[in-house]
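Summary for the funding panel

The consortium committed to producing paired sequence-structure records for every protein in the target list. Below we show the first two records in order, beginning with the earlier of the two.
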Amino acid sequence: MTRDYSSRGLNRARYLVAGQSANHMVPHRSASAVRNGQLPSGLSSLKDLDFMDPANPFFLTDRALHSAGQYIGRVAPLSTGTFSKRPGNVILCDSGGLQYGRDPKLWQGDASREWSLRFLEANADEAITLDVPTRVITPGILPFDSFNTALATTVDNNRYFARHRSAPVRFLSVLQGETAAEALTWYQAVKTHPFEGWAFGGSLRVDYVHIVSMVLRLIAAGLLDPERNRLHFLGVSSLSHAVMLSALQVALRPHLGDDAFQITFDTSSPSKLGMVGKMFGYADLSPTSFTMAIFYPPSGHVHADWASPFPVKSSRISEALNISDLCAPAWTRQHGWDELGNAIVTHHNVESLLRGIDDANSIMELPSAWAVDHAPAHVIRAYRALKTMFDHSDPLAHVRRFRGDFSKL
């Protein structure tokens, strides 16, 4: 039976895998172009790897992130793939700001703004505005050599998007900053173009005292309402942060009177692990651990004939395939997984992580007296602090009392 993660815990924050171009394309390629058409017996077709197709035989989810940064300068439309827009799904596109920041030679001012805007409008249901992440600032390297230049460019980008947008895409304005002072300065500058939601970047995106303080500012300014009811957290997917964001959503929905308010978060961990020969296992949930297990399966070209089952069954696809189905002989590769093997492992990793996040949320939704047998005490206390913050006259002061617990996440 297909596992549907889009229907699990509708009041929870949602994880979006950051899809890579290879995983976008492989499920929709001609089978004859992959291993000469010799697919593993556990796959009926390559489309079995498209986990955003409701007909998927293994698992499905209805939300994902796809970054424009992989395609900067591309003119031709993207081919149909896993992360294409389709009815019933939500594709959040990142704008490519990280890639522009890491390689300033790519930055062409208004031409880059125009390209990013049109790419997002063509490929996204929701999109991150084009920011210059503060973590890529490099003193002495133009054009993003200081906080002030990064912020000024981001404000210009927002202004361009606001003037020239032409498609029904929900845009999320980015809140950056590596210190509280930077974050406040950034917020004051970008709030003039509020768009339809907000995305947290920078080092403070996992500081819950800071997050709560910024959320309260947004509420007080009328900038978190049914017209702007999305919060996204960039580059976050640990189990502890997944449940904290669920707690924040549980607190905010009734406070805002908006059951459609949604928090999302993303990483590219499933594909990045696969690229170095690693797999997710099950969630390791106990009073001393709250993490995903990670292991190295046999992955050398010498294992191409090793008809042994996957050593862990944390995904549906792992029940159908053997180690040999991942490994194609090739002395030139770092490990034995070819394009199809990597796609299979990424599919496994995405579901394993979704399953781990589901399990972690389920533990935290238990009464505390039961949850203590399956989660560390500091995780439980931090979760409860966020979930109940609006039960207190000063929500920020209440959350600050648990700063020590948040620091251990």
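The next record, for a separate protein in the list, is shown here:
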Amino acid sequence: MPLPRTRGTALRQRLAELRGPAVPPKSLDARALAALAANPGCNRRALLDGAGVDKAKLAGALGSPSAFGQSQFAFMRGNAFEARVKADGGAELLRLVHEKLDPGAEPPTAGVVPDLSAVGPEGRAARTALALREATAAGGWTLLDHPMLALDVAGSPAFLEPDAVVVHPDGGWTVVEIKSFPMLDGSADPAKVGAAARQSAVYVLALEEVAAHLGAQPEGRAGGGGTTVLDSSTPAEAPRRRSASDSVPVPEVHHRVLLVCPKDFSNLPTASAVDVRKQRAVTRRQLGRLTRVEDIAAALPEGTCFSPDLPTADLTTAVESVPATYAPECLSACELAFHCRDRSRAEGAVTSLGRSLRADLGGLTTVGDVLAAAHGEAGDPDDPAVAALRRAAQLRAEALGARSLGVGPPGAEAPGVEPSGAAASAAAAPEAAASGAVAPGVVASGAEASGVRDGAVCR
């Protein structure tokens, strides 16, 4: 007799249909989750990630393959360095945690490394929760190697696998992130450290869900399976709280994570403590803004499927049925960025030129609107953005001696109004903006700057 169709099973079946009946799901890692949280208004990415669609294969099938990823050499080097850090039962890793985060505790002599193997991600997540509970009660140093954590993302569970989690003798939990980029003279590349901090913040949020779940269970029942519930008062904000039964204390999830990197140009590990409270707060707020995956899926036409085996025309129609919010920052974070950029340029959206310019232009959302406002053909003259655009067009006409061409019509200028940088740039070369090119004087934002060559944006 088949099991009754519940809301959870119905959603999983719907996501499987969107992914393709013969396509296995791609797990959502913390790096992708941090990128998703950075652009919460993009329903396309939220749905594709929630359904487990491989966006790299999807982009290739659409004819716009992604152009980023980790090289095989870097992957092998990172694995070799991680194996060295965790050798001998994680003795060196526990020493670094003690030195950088908990020097007042008893020095680790022989840490415990529990076996976290289980069937499926749900089984591994339940086994991890049980190991965390047992390690917290034991009161010693414990190293969890590649534990499995679950985090609810827009109504769909995401299973995350941090490099390591260390349980302190006092019962506190610390996330450990191991990276292969070097730490030179005690400091590393700020951009890479920031990316590692955002990734670690996702793990901290997932650990807080586990801690809240353990604290909500009576003694002897914590650590079992089931769906974790995020408490409104997190363990980091109220450490060592007790459950209603006053029997299981909620463990403290430390807001400082340990970043382990190679020292200088050697393969010796060194570490630094990174405070991720800001990244954690931003990620939590952004994840809360995500539209639920089931709501996005319910709005799609019947029969929509994102299987890369479909014809290109059908696949393009399916992808375009889900709204996207493109920005140049997507180029370094999403495999579908090139496809979305081409569509954004074809529609004339000003966000394809950068979020800062979009913010300066206010209600002018397309390049056509910007050009019409700059030429005095549309727009409210009392709008500061419109006034700045007209003033910029007037100054450009005067500089080029082209007032007779009608670029700056009489009465279009607003005396005393100086155009802002982004507005002046948009009006400086309207033909270039309309064609997707970057005009002289326009500074491309974010990842778009890496593709600027001789005044034109290229791949």
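Regarding this second record: The radius of gyration is 26 Å. The longest strand covers residues 256-262.
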